[in-house]
């Protein structure tokens, strides 16, 4: 697609400055490439000295905007010398969008990792630290090791934060010019530093930090929040924004609490739906009716529960109902070594160290008959929105920002600009196929896989959960069809599985892990046979997640194809009332293979749209609540991120 057609698209959607920005960036990209020709004559030593000169000019007060053409030309030359990769014009344009403090929408396969080096280098010249944020430890480590030599050749140092690091190592990594890491790790380090400083009045933070440094106490880990560049920005800024970062105060379980969690789980099986309790799937919440409260009160209980007040018992039974009906094993969580580990819906990865609050996590542990972990209070808390609003400069890149443009612009005060692709996208899609039952759909998916394998294509099958990926894998195994499964249980083999996913007739079944930060390289024979074919076995709760999966096909001008296979028993529709869903399935008219008419797709889209609006409202409400609390703490002269109470 040309720059002009991209501009027209964005002007239609209300983003007026797009055309002039893209034209300006395109012209400047040409100048940078031309400037880079003279750098080829320089020795490595001279190239590094040139970089040090730019750093001196930046620290002396010369505007970074003025230095940008020289800086980007230097980075492009360094990337060629170290990686044999030179930035394309559209990558240079993406780098300009990121420097100017916006979200660059760059399609999957357009080289966002290499693009990020440009603004990271330029901002790092100030010597105040630059944080490159990824969605998991694996990508943070991979990108820092891959791009580190580009920075090193220009005299800049690179570090990486991972979940298994000690504070001293973290301190060293943050002290380097560029630091890679996840939003979780950086957010928790921010909170731990606030705890080290202690509560201080707003406006007096700098003085509190200074006092802390001179006090001889344990030094802070981070040195400030100057510039954050977020990869997969919509995942971090939108999808993860409904879950605040909380540092807990361990509250050791007493025998009564453990008994309460286990008894409440058993009690839910004695309660009758709509008589004793009401479960609301759309809100993932449950409440006891008057009849239910009476029944719970009269149920036989262990004597240890005599010390617990009735209101707490009611609340815990309600949480156990939510755990039972709202959270599914191998979809929302997995059990590893007798431990319940949350699975992130948007990425399909395990969220180590994260716990659901208010006894919900312990309710699920009781349900799974694993050891009950200690409940947590709150020592410090911050939402993802508030954390990134602390940065002086913020930028991000993703392939799917446009669908959340309004929310991003309103929440983070940054613009979204679509960057043209390096080569025209030739991705093709087929009409969705919709079935009455899950089993009919899966049988059709297996048939389609067999057909595509005969064509010697490579096939990526996207599933919404660990459970779904393994059940489909069992069907393929029954047919003796070779395949690989990539989900939260096999995250350690991710790189090897993705590496082979582009081979002829290769079948890879994956949760959303395959949609974030990975690159499936196709063999030449696969390109000749139609490229990578993506089979999406469900629609997710966000159209952006669907687009991430579809975007695996047809990257960088390669051929590719996608198709959705849906059913009325899909997880997306579990937000509907049970009676409504049962009536829907009963009334649906299917053919002898269980397939419905394509017109049903509008029903799925409406459901997805409803969930997107619901989650958007939840994020908005949480941000509104946090703003109110911050104002309240400010009035009291306290640090707004410490000692939160519910």
From TrEMBL:
Keywords: ATP-binding, Cell membrane, Cytoplasm, Membrane, Nucleotide-binding, Protein transport, Translocase, Translocation, Transport. It catalyses: ATP + H2O + cellular proteinSide 1 = ADP + phosphate + cellular proteinSide 2. Residues 93-249 form the Helicase ATP-binding domain. It is a peripheral membrane protein. The keyword DNA damage does not apply. InterPro entries: Helicase_ATP-bd, Helicase_C-like, P-loop_NTPase, SecA, SecA_CS, SecA_DEAD, SecA_motor_DEAD, SecA_preprotein_X-link_dom. Its EC number is 7.4.2.8. GO terms for cellular component: cell envelope Sec protein transport complex; cytosol; plasma membrane. Residues 437-596 form the Helicase C-terminal domain. Monomer and homodimer. Part of the essential Sec protein translocation apparatus which comprises SecA, SecYEG and auxiliary proteins SecDF. Other proteins may also be involved. Belongs to the SecA family. This is Protein translocase subunit SecA.
């Amino acid at each position: 697609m040309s720059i002009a057609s991209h501009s027209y698209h964005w002007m239609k959607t209300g983003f007026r400055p797009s055309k002039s920005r893209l034209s300006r960036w395109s012209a400047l990209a040409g100048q940078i490439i031309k400037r880079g020709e003279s750098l080829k004559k320089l020795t490595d030593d001279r190239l590094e000295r040139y970089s040090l000169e730019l750093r001196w000019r930046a620290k002396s007060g010369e505007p970074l905007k003025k230095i940008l053409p020289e800086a980007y030309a230097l980075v492009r030359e360094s990337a060629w010398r170290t990686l044999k990769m030179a930035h394309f014009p559209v990558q240079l344009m993406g780098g300009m969008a990121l420097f100017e403090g916006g979200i660059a929408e760059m399609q999957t396969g357009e080289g966002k990792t290499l693009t990020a080096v440009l603004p990271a280098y330029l901002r790092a010249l100030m010597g105040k630290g630059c944080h490159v944020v990824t969605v998991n430890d694996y990508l943070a480590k991979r990108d820092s090791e891959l791009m580190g030599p580009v920075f090193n050749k220009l005299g800049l140092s690179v570090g990486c934060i991972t979940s298994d690091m000690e504070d001293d190592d973290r301190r060293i990594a943050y002290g380097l010019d560029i630091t890679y890491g996840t939003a979780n790790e950086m957010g928790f380090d921010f909170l731990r530093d606030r705890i080290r400083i202690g509560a201080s009045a707003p406006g007096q933070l700098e003085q509190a930090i200074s006092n802390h440094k001179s006090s001889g106490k344990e030094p802070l880990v981070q040195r400030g929040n100057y510039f954050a560049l977020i990869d997969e920005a919509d995942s971090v800024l939108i999808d993860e924004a409904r879950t605040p970062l909380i540092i807990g105060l361990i509250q050791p379980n007493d025998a009564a609490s453990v008994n309460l969690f286990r008894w409440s789980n058993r009690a839910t099986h004695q309660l009758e739906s709509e008589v004793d309790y009401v479960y609301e799937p759309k809100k993932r919440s449950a409440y006891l009716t008057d009849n239910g409260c009476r029944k719970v009160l009269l149920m036989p209980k262990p004597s240890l529960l005599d010390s617990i007040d009735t209101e707490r018992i009611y609340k815990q039974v309600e949480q156990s109902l939510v755990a039972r009906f709202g959270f599914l094993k191998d979809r929302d969580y997995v059990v590893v070594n007798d431990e319940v580990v949350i699975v992130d819906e948007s990425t399909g990865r395990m969220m180590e160290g994260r716990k659901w609050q208010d006894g919900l996590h312990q309710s699920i542990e009781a349900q799974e008959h694993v050891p009950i972990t200690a409940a947590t209070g709150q020592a410090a808390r911050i939402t993802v929105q508030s954390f990134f609003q602390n940065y002086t400069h913020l930028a991000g890149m993703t392939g799917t920002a446009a669908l959340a443009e309004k929310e991003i612009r309103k929440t983070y005060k940054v613009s979204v600009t679509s960057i043209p692709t390096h080569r025209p996208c030739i991705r093709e899609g087929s009409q969705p196929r919709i079935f009455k039952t899950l089993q009919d759909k899966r049988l059709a998916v297996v048939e389609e896989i067999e057909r595509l394998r005969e064509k010697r294509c490579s096939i990526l099958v996207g599933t919404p959960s660990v459970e779904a990926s393994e059940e489909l894998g069992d069907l393929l195994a029954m047919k003796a069809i070779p395949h690989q499964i990539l989900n939260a249980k096999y995250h350690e083999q991710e790189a090897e599985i993705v590496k082979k996913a582009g081979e002829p007739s290769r079948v890879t079944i994956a949760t959303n892990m395959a949609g974030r930060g990975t690159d499936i390289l196709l063999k030449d024979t696969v390109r000749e046979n139609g490229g990578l074919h993506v089979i999406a076995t469900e629609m997710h709760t966000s159209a952006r997640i669907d687009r991430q999966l579809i975007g695996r096909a047809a990257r960088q001008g390669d051929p590719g194809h996608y198709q959705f296979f849906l059913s009325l028993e899909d997880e997306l529709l579990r937000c509907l009332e049970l009676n409504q869903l049962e009536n829907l399935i009963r009334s649906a008219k299917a053919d002898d293979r269980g397939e419905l008419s394509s017109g049903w797709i509008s029903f799925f889209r409406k459901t997805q749209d409803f969930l997107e609006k619901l989650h958007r409202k939840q994020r908005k409400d949480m941000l509104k609540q946090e703003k109110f609390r911050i104002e309240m703490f400010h009035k009291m002269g306290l640090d707004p991120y410490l000692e939160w109470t519910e």
